[in-house]
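Format notes (please read before filing issues)

Several people have asked whether sequences and structure tokens are stored in separate files. They are not. Every record keeps both together, in the order shown below: the sequence lines, then the token lines. Line labels are part of the format and must not be stripped during preprocessing.
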Amino acid sequence: MRVCIAEKPSVARDIAEVIGAKQRKDGYYEGNGYQVTWTFGHFCTLKEPHDYFEQWKYWRLEDLPMIPSSFGIKLIENSGVQKQFKVIETLVQACEEVINCGDAGQEGELIQRWVLLKAKCTAPIKRLWISSLTEEAIRNGFQQLREADQYNNLYAAGSARAIGDWLLGMNATRLFTKKFAQGKVVLSIGRVQTPTLAMIVQRQKEINAFVSEDYWELKTLYRETEFTATIDRLKSPEKAAKGLAYLQEHLFEVTSFEKKDGKEGNPRLFDLTGLQVEANKKYAYTADDTLKHVQSLYEKKLVTYPRVDTTYLSEDLHPKVPGILQDLTPYSALTAPVLAKPIPKLKTVFDDKKVTDHHAIIPTGVYPGGIGLEEKRLYDLIARRFIAAFYPECKISNTTVLGKVGQVPFKVTGKQILEPGWKEVYANDVKEKKEGEEEEKILPVFEVGESGPHTPRIHQGKTSPPKAFTEASLLRAMETAGKQVDDEEMRELLKDNGIGRPSTRANIIETLFRRKYIEKKKKNIYATQTGMDLIDTIQSELLKSAELTGQWERKLRLIEKGEYAPDTFKDELIQMVTALTAEVKTASYKFITIAPETPPEEKEKEKGKTKKEAKPKAPKAPIVLEQLTCPKCKTHLLKKGNTAYGCSNFNQCGFKIPFTVADKKLTDKQLHDLLTKGKSSSKNNKLSLDEHFNLVVA
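Then the structure lines:
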């Protein structure tokens, strides 16, 4: 018997269907010589400090640094995890071969390897490595199973990352908390989290220190075209008035007229960060929401594997592109011009050297039916970007006109789109103008040497502060270790030194929000006072520098390629943690307290209340019922219908629970209690689930 282990029940079901394991058992499918089982995310984790030594259970400065002689793993304390692990353990110990069907990436490899290690697997292991979950991709993957050893370096990098994060996170968090925190406050420090916060704090300080200044510019209108003086901005209205008087005494003369044809290259295909950036700019989606939605599209077989950091396709995909475009029937009006000619094998799209484990995110060609608005929007971004990649370049004409009034030089630039090319794909979009970007403006033809009367004026403006980070700009800053880069080629080169991985950056940002180190106002991200105090307290540049963290990230990528030893990486971090501990233990700085800010509208309400009543409470986590597993089959997630919540595998499982009982709408809290505890109460009734998971009203 061959045992396949997938990372989710839904993926296991898809695989089982394709390979003929159609008999449903408790915790797995069986048939055709296969048993297909699953994890649901991380089953194992690195041991906690107290698992090594009892005294490490207590947070004491004298016990730091905590450096285990060797790192061990343990099963997560969760009854559902432990039950499913027993199934995996039993199957693995009795089989002749294991097929690792985990997500084809570093995190997926780590999840599966730890489970197999914990299950004491001795059977030979093969690896299923696929970029989409379509039936064709799964079938082809099983015909070309790879040796598990091919991915030893990927596992080594994932393991080194986890150990590095444990060493720094566990030690530094305890170190700074015990040294600088007051009360029950925990000061969370992380290898990626802290330099990300440091970037936000630095920007915040620049904004706070900024003092807006008035300035004056000279402009003039000549032949219905407005020119701007290219001298330094004037700092006083008196100087501007003098300048205006001077301009009124002289004619305008054209000194140069230059018109150049150029091209605007096609937008790159999406990697995960690029998709998160675009979704944040266009729809204000958080990085975390975008990741969840695109992961769902992947599991629905609509797009390829999303946790990628390349914008290229492998060259062997070139012959498959016409078929995918042909299948994008909702976009047939846009694909028709591309399909009318052979698909060009563009170096900006196809490059094996730029593709490692996976290629860029593209549609699979499966029809996108029955998906919600958020997923539909993301699918549209991915599909249009894929189509646009094969359109002709956009041809433009750039015009620059120079002139002078007396001795004062003037300039105006214009841009004209000659052939829209790939911009046809986005013809209906409302385009946001980027700062400094030239909007389309057609200028008249000027002759060098011509001159004539003009209408000068003074323009008064104010200097602007640095822009606060949005999730889009923060993701780009993480990708390039804080360097401001617009050029796509340069961005590709810097990816190896980016901080975090595409799949983890969203979670890092969410952690900073959760810890109240940062907050969001509209789309902008700001550091809180706690976040600023924490960064000010950390004297070690190693902890705060995005560039240095980017160097660690590069070493992890080298481990993945087999070009750097994991033990060397671990030893370097041990040395760093040891030095950091010695430095902080002797440091003196102010204590940090977290004072939750009260919203302005709440402050008025609290006036006149007793101190006890006004005491701020920690916000409750929102109840999201769709994240719960069905209590009956304990396998599939719940799904919201029109009148009830039900098992997402309702046709087979049959479990559902209505929104309304005895004409009373149940609250999310009541539904949550029923689903997790099996009982709840409404105003007039006691509710419970019987042994067959039917609702009983008493």
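For reference, the curators noted about this record: Confidence is low (pLDDT under 50) at residues 597-621. Residues 128 and 145 are 5 Å apart (CA to CA).
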